[in-house]
């Protein structure tokens, strides 16, 4: 008889491509992983993995078991979602990831609302660049990811993506800047303006430079910060500008410290997206979190089958 625990270890080895990676992922020893896989192979009378110097890959029988295991765990998740009463659970955990803007300015409010209803659950938020969030979602270190970065370079058959909201990017200025009293700005006005930007490896930086150059504007970089708060303070302290979504500066705008100027024609837009691993069914807790967000982002309803 197949043991669900051993089957989960088997799937971890498939995902990680090695016994060592699976052991680290599951917080058990590598020898324990090896023993569980050996037990499975003995019970089934089949070799499940080809061992190589780069790791392990499923044999034809391993691939067959992988397909069955995905269906088995999908059915288990379906049963859990149909029967679990979250109100009665004494504890639980949800781990989500987000790019910096989302992680600092949106996700804390989401988590606060969620925990106001389910105070017994722990929600862990990890902030990283788009590539890191996507990687951690596919490695199942994160259950859900929320990113603003473009996903053209992160195509994967297991990566699910849902566009939540198109977010305009605005010009952020301080009272010291000549544009303080402007109502909006043409994009071409950004030529020769000193810009505060994210680091070169940031998806936000790459996107901004590519978009500006597509409009014939060569960015003039005055400062690079890996922290959005530092970028805002630099703008507030001097005459440089930055490009950010309005939700990042709403407090400073309300206080009169910064202004967010629309760009004529709204040419700078990014999309807030939900990402998840299609092979890992939503748990009752992650589903409840997404159901809460449906009121704000209607597209999520189709993801969780509530449309």
What does this molecule look like?
The chain is α/β, with parallel strands linked by helices and 307 residues long. It has 12 helices and 12 strands. The strands form 3 sheets. Strands 4-3-5-12-6 form a 5-stranded mixed β-sheet, with helices on both faces. α8 links the parallel β8 and β9 (220-224). α1 (4-16) crosses α2 and α2 crosses α3.
Mean pLDDT: 92
Sketch the major β-sheet.
5 strands, mixed
CATH class descriptor of the largest domain? Alpha Beta
Helical content class? 40-55%
Low-pLDDT stretches are: none
What overall form do the CA principal axes indicate? elongated
Content of β-strand: 15-25%
**SSE string:** HHHEEHEHHEHEEEEHEHEHEEHH
What would you say about this model in short?
This protein has 307 residues and is of the alpha/beta class.
Topology:
Layout: H1 4-16, H2 19-26, H3 30-44, E1 49-52, E2 55-58, H4 60-83, E3 92-98, H5 100-105, H6 107-117, E4 121-127, H7 130-138, E5 144-147, E6 159-168, E7 170-173, E8 194-197, H8 203-214, E9 220-224, H9 228-237, E10 241-244, H10 250-255, E11 259-261, E12 269-277, H11 284-293, H12 300-303
Parallel strand pairs: 3-4, 3-5, 8-9, 8-10
Antiparallel strand pairs: 1-2, 5-12, 6-12, 7-10, 7-11
Helix pairs in contact: 1-2, 1-3, 2-3
């Amino acid at each position: 008889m197949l043991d669900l625990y051993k089957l989960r270890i088997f799937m971890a080895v498939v995902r990680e491509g090695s016994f060592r990676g699976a052991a680290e992922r599951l917080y058990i020893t590598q020898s324990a992983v090896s023993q569980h896989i050996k037990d499975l192979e003995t019970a089934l009378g089949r070799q499940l993995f080809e061992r190589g110097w780069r790791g392990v890959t499923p044999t034809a029988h391993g691939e067959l078991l992988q397909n069955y295991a995905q269906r088995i765990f999908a059915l288990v998740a379906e049963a859990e979602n149909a029967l679990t009463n979250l109100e009665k659970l004494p504890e639980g955990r949800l781990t989500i990831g987000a790019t910096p803007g989302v992680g600092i300015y949106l996700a804390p409010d989401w988590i606060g609302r969620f925990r106001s209803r389910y105070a017994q659950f722990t929600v862990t938020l990890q902030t990283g660049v788009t590539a890191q969030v996507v990687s951690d979602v596919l490695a199942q270190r994160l259950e859900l990811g929320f990113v603003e970065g473009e996903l053209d370079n992160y195509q994967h058959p297991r990566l699910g993506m849902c566009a939540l909201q198109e977010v305009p990017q605005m010009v952020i200025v301080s009272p010291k800047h000549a544009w303080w009293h402007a109502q909006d700005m043409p994009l071409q006005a950004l030529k020769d303006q000193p810009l505060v930007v994210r680091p070169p490896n940031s998806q936000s930086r790459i996107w901004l430079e590519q978009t500006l150059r597509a409009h014939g504007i060569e960015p003039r970089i005055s400062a690079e910060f890996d922290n959005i708060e530092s970028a805002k303070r630099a703008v507030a302290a001097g005459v440089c500008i930055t490009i950010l979504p309005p939700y990042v500066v709403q407090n400073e705008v309300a206080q009169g410290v910064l202004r967010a100027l629309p760009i004529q024609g709204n040419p700078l837009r990014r999309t807030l997206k939900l990402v998840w691993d299609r092979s890992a069914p939503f748990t009752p807790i992650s589903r409840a979190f997404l159901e809460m967000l449906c009121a704000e982002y209607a597209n999520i309803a189709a993801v969780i089958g509530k449309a």
